[in-house]
Amino acid sequence: MAQKPMSIEELEKMAAVIRCDIIEMICTAEAGHPGGSLSAADIVTALYFRVMRVDPANPRWPDRDRFILSKGHACPVWYAALAERGYFEKPHLATLRQLDSILQGHPDMNKTPGIDMTAGSLGHGLSAGLGMALSGKMRQKDYHVFVVIGDGESQEGSIWEAAMSGAKWKLDNLTAILDYNNLQNDYAVDETMPIAPVPDKWKAFGWNVVEIDGHNMQDVVDALEGAKSHKGSPTMIIANTIKGKGVSYMENVCEWHGKAPCKEEADQALAELRR
Amino acid sequence: MNQKHQSPYHYVRPEIVSVLTSEKLFTSAEQQPTRYAYAEAMLELGERNPAVVVLDADVSKSIKTNKFAEKFPDRSFNFGIAEQNMMAAAAGMASTGLIPFATTYAVFASMRALDMVRNSIHYPRLNVKIAASHSGITPGPDGVTHQGQEDLSLIRAIAGSTIIAPADPPTAKLAVWAAAEFEGPVYLSFTRDPVPVIFDMDYPFKIGRAVTVRDGTDATIIANRDLVVQSLVAAERLTARGLNVRVIDCHTLKPLDVEAVLKAASETGAIVTAENNIFYGGLGSAVAEVLVENLPIPMKRIGVRDTFAESGPYLELLKRYGLSSEHIAGAVEEVIKRKP
User: Fold this and answer.
1) pTM, to two decimals
2) In CATH, what class is A8-274?
3) Are residues B190 and B265 in the same domain?
4) Model ipTM?
5) Cβ–Cβ gap B89/A110 under 8 Å
6) What would the DSSP string read from start to end of B66-101?
7) Each residue of A84-105: pLDDT tens digit?
8) Residues of chain B found within 8 Å of residue A130, distances taken between Cβ atoms
């Protein structure tokens, strides 16, 4: 609301700003999860600055579109997007994970304006989004629910419980986006516990499946807007992404799942991102 | 003075008082599993409050919430055998202003889906009601896998939880309606096996307010759920032995009615707790925590010891596992002997 949906070029610039915020936040906090925050940055940017119907001045507006970052550890990307979108003042970003901060280590819907669902324990968010979507259908509301899940998170059985029920209730007001960066805490996803073939699985579960390059902003926007207008089934957007995207030394390096960059590393990352 | 005024009982139906020490209590007296009372209460609640929805996990025919589904098909959601999904979905629904009653058996509500119950329902304080049947060893014949003997302890350990374990069908209904009016998560604990209809609907049900259902001065039994009736039987039996025992229906396990506990402790000087739940972390623990810090007096806990039970008829299991009226009466005599 009160902000024109951004063009692809503007979105790309905003995604770079959000990536810089992520690096600065995690460096300042000396803890956090940069890899999965950076891989989801283009998706979250497209949602908040173009696709979703939201009003930062009224974060609990009942008719708003909803977003859940089910892979809650990547919350720096969510916090950065909310701050840039005007849900709260940017200086809060420097308080991530500190005592009295509105920005918890994992998202808390009662502490942070704009957080639609508390998240962090994996395998909850898609079900929570499903509940929101069911409620929307029941009460003939036209809001849409977007949930970003992780690929490692897809090893949780509850993800597949939610997958079954999304199809049962034909929830075309629900869209899941898989941040498929193929790395998790310990090792590569394929090595830890393979989840492939992902498109076949979601198709078999009755979802409308779209596969995209999760860092091509035009692709991201087209897929999200397409999902919003798709009828008859929930949509799964499989976004092929790169963990640590945009920071050369973090890209595809498992160790950056949950490690903070030091000052020098952060400076290098910011220089690369601002290029 | 009429006889009613002289009776030590409060809100207990006279026809129950007259059969308390008789075999008829569990044979000819009116009885019903409290899970069915829950389902009946939901039918009425559904009429009154359009925000109320029922979530099931393939036991709607057992709990009889299928009646709600028939009456309110658009407000009933069967998740199949997927309790984790049901609980987190309930959280999402509550975030939009609905009042979901997530319905399943205690073992699954409190253990299979505990992570969702903690992180997605209690931590964000979402307005989800968890309706758990088969609490304690009330599903006698089903055996250990379906006997939810830990649920009260587990949910009690969650910050900000509210837990109600009503004694009988009428108070189960009152508990459901009170939970619907309460803003925030509530865990409701029901029985699989039938219990006598002890109370009238004029029972003054208020969350967090324990009710003295029998007056007495020598000791107090503080009980919940299906052991309230066993406690009444115990107290009645003890009159023959010259003992005058108070019984408190502590339907709300959390927040505990600390005032009622301390009042009973100071006025009667000895306390027995009675719960059909594991011995750790439930009502006995809650009462002991209050007493030890404020007014240490002789106390004994009746509960499931450090053991799993087995299949068997409900009332026989109570006897086998130390939860029957005889066990409660024995504990009362013991604490009275220990009084200084």
Assistant:
1) 0.97
2) alpha beta
3) no
4) 0.97
5) no
6) HHHHHH-GGGEEE--S-HHHHHHHHHHHHHTT-EEE
7) 999 999 999 999 999 999 999 9
8) 85, 89, 92
